[in-house]
Amino acid sequence: MNAAAGFISLEGGEGAGKSTVLAHIRDYLAAAGIDALFTREPGGTEAGEAMRRVLLEPAYRGLCAESELLLMFASRAQLVRAVIVPALAAGRWVVSDRFTDASYAYQGGGRGQPETRIADLERWAADGLRPDLTLLLDLPVAQGLARAGARGGQADRIEQEQIDFFERVRAAYRARAAADPARFRLIDASRPIAEVVMQVEQALAQFLCARSSP
Ligand code: Z5A
What we know:
There is one protein chain. Helix 2 runs antiparallel to helix 3 (65-89) and helix 4 (100-110) crosses helix 7 (163-179). This protein has a 5-stranded parallel β-sheet with strand order 2-3-1-4-5, with helices on both faces. The chain is of the alpha/beta class. It contains 8 helices and 5 strands. The protein has a single domain (7-212), classed as Rossmann fold (3-Layer(aba) Sandwich), CATH 3.40.50. Residues 12, 14-20, 41-42, 72, 97-98, 102-103, 106-107, 147-148, 151, 158-159, 192-193, 196 line the site of ligand Z5A.
């Protein structure tokens, strides 16, 4: 595969199936001869993983929206400079489990942080870096919450939010996808996993094809 290295992000609300789909993306890219670097947000660096623990710790339920937004971008600033940009510069593909669209959806849509503030942070903290392809796993909130609930385990600080929060997150994600159809592929994640994987593979095939054409 001689396609120029690309940056792919995977997004979605609660119980959308990102973890399940990521394993298939890994296999698909490997079969295409692409040795991609996989990372995640918040986290992906030693310092970023420490910030993730703070962000998701249920005991910090009093964390204000501004602190939450800044911590998301502090983690991102580190990841961009220490991991993503060096990898892309070395010609390596990068796949990130969430990126800045999650801040527009959760901190913007969910918490009501102004879009202009997030855009400013995106410019300087994330160095304006955007994925080339964003796969958005979309499904009704109630269905996603039911899946996440059935998975069990303790809900983290953000997972403990109410349904209207997740409805705003979903609406913000969908609005971003509608505003940038060249970058986003909307995946119907309400379908059985085999169908979801098929949609993802089709999107990857189109992307790789476009990337390798002269
Ligand atoms: N966050 C933020 O607020 N702002 C930001 O800028 C960033 C992140 C970057 C952690 O993210 C939190 O950070 C997240 C957003 C916030 N908060 N919340 N809520 P995360 O991505 O690490 O955590 P997560 O969203 O909770 O993802 P997850 O735990 O990895 O869930 P998932 O990957 O979407 O789901 P899953 O584990 O693959 O699937 C859930 C269950 O459903 C599981 O039992 C599967 O077997 C099942 N499943 C999956 N697909 C299907 C289908 N198609 N049919 C039936 N069952 C299915």
